[in-house]
Amino acid sequence: MNPEQFERVSHLLNIHQTLRTTFSTPANLSGFMGMTNDNAPFDGRTPLAMIASGELADLREVAQHIDTFKSGLPRLTAQSAQSILISQTKEQPIETVI
């Protein structure tokens, strides 16, 4: 495995682990990556669409954003995750909700 491949795999595993520790239900865990997000850095795209671009910079940006979820947040329940998702559609930064 070359260094870039190693970095990509590392980012993907870290994203997965952070989402697993942030969301308490499988639906929220898998749903977050496919949900349109109007907040930076997504700007109306899904996290998955950014990653699928194939650009390492996009993968890094998604990973860095999701990594901010680790900042001592309690595990999200379905209800609190729904509140976050609703607030995203109102174009409020996710950081102010969490």
Low-confidence stretches: 89-98
Largest sheet descriptor? none
**Count, helices:** 6
Shape: globular
CA gyration radius, whole angstroms: 13 Å
- In terms of DSSP E residues, the strand content is under 5%
Multimeric organization: single chain
Q: How many DSSP E strands?
A: 0
pLDDT average, as an integer? 79
Notes on the protein architecture:
This protein has six helices and no strands. It is an all-alpha fold. α1 crosses α2 (26-34).
Outline:
It is built from 6 helices and no strands. The chain has 98 residues and is mainly α.
How do the strands and helices of this protein lay out in sequence?
Elements: H1 3-22, H2 26-34, H3 47-52, H4 56-67, H5 78-89, H6 94-97
Helix pairs in contact: 1-2, 1-4
